[in-house]
Amino acid sequence: MPRRFLRFSYAETPDLKKLTEWLRARGANISLVQIKESKVGNSAGLGMFISETASHQHLKPCMGSHSKSRWWWPFSSAMQQPLASFPLSSAITAANILRDPQLGRGYSWMLQHGVVDERTIIMAYLIAEKLKGDASEVAPWINALPRRFGTPVMFSEAELEELKGTPLQKAAGIVRKRLEELWASLEPALNTLLREKGGVSREATFDDLLWAYSVFWSRGQSLPVPQSGAASQVLARDPYAMIEVQEGIVPGLDFCNHQVVAPKCWWELTAPDSNQDADTGSKNTDRSINMIPNPKNTDPKSVHPVPDKASPSTSSQTVGVAPGGSDVLIHLCLHRGTKVSTGEELMISYGDKSNEELLMLYGFAVPGNPHDRIMMHCPVPPFAEWDEAMQGRIELMKMLRYELQFFLPHPGNAPEASENSTLEALESVLRTLEVFVLTKEEVTQKLHALKTSRTEALSKRFNLDEFQRRWVNLDTTSLLVMSKEMGIRMGAAAALVKMLETRVQDLEGAGGTGTFEQDLHLLSKMSLDSTKFACVAYRCGQKCITREYLKLARQHLQDVLTLMQDVEDKLKHKSTTTQPSVRG
User: Fold this and answer.
1) Residue 488 is part of which domain span?
2) Do 438 and 387 share a domain, yes or no?
3) Does 583 fall in a domain?
4) Predicted confidence (pLDDT) per residue in 77-112, tens digit
């Protein structure tokens, strides 16, 4: 799908020849590819393409099946020739930054004193290298990056008006405020370091932080580093294997653009084979930054990412260099069964991201995104206002493993979606909201039941379909129990209807941006600038999904009310027929 709505702004035309030479000097094998202006849209920036001189025998897929949305394929076998390779030692990671001969000690001091964490140290590094200009060792790459991104944290006040009534409007404000707080603590130390040893022409500003933040979150990756062999093979043998994960940016690979459905390419990390068993998941403490399970959920790009303080690392060894001295490599590969032609742009997947994530992180949105969804929050007051009853509800939520926020996917839009999956999503939300309509006594009873017999307690969940089939044949006692459970479900359904009605009003009412139909009309106009197009595509999805679930929630509420009335009528009839006759 054309991505004309992705906005980048360059200070000058990038020197692609110098960029290519620089990547090769840093150990990249890019003989089969070339970096040039992307074809996915007028403002999409640079992309990676199969070289016009690449021969067909070079364009072989790596062994393994096709993965629609992951960087890795868990059943891959021996890897054939990749399209491109980049050494991990040349990636921009916290550990590699600490080895910088000029500013490494200064970065280490900031890390040890809690001024930065392993993410914000990368942002500080990007700021410093940008201000060094052509004197920077990464200048050819920095010069190929946009100077302004179309992400909400960089929006003007007028541009933020395009997000009125959406969750992203509030989220952008929260992120920007936290970035201002981060800058207040980072700026004195960073500018002192740059004045003393940086060789820069001016001091860093908050705008530089916004730029570096956007670079990190739009181009950064979570890199699962195996001890030996390919990361995907380690995870195929043991999906829960502990594996070292580094966060950073891989210059060169970061020019691969996003494709929503069936991208042809993926990336893989491999380390030279060693005597150490790669399956053991054992931790290499000499070079470990962060050891976490299976990296399917380690993408640093959360919905509304905000830098947090973290414990500093004490690692000093070159990250990306295996124990034997050979470099860990990041390969760009073809999925099995796919073919590419010379001159074709190579696309990867950034993950199954909603438009809210895509706009917040990358500055674009995809009309009809199959992974789109809305996020809502449970009706929880501020912590200071929690009473004993609310504390009980939160404890019950934890025991039931419910979350305080929930997501509703686009009904029937995802490739694997069906009517059943949509109804399952609705049912999951209703079960969560039931916790907030229980009385204090009912919460206590459920907590006791879960602690006594969790399996039995979970088996007694509300099931409207089952009630509709069975109620006619139930006795009075069972009908009374059913009536009570339906009352709880009625409260939850009514709460969800109210929440969705409020969301519709926020999106489409006086404080919003107009109706869903108006946004559809706007999307059809080719005259929209890139920022407005992305905003309209995002809010159009929000309005569509909210309306659909409001319709489903109202129908569910009506079904419950109808069944409740039938049960009440039957209870009244049973009460009348069982009363003893009065003799005159």
Assistant:
1) 367-577
2) yes
3) no
4) 444 579 999 999 999 999 999 999 999 999 999 999
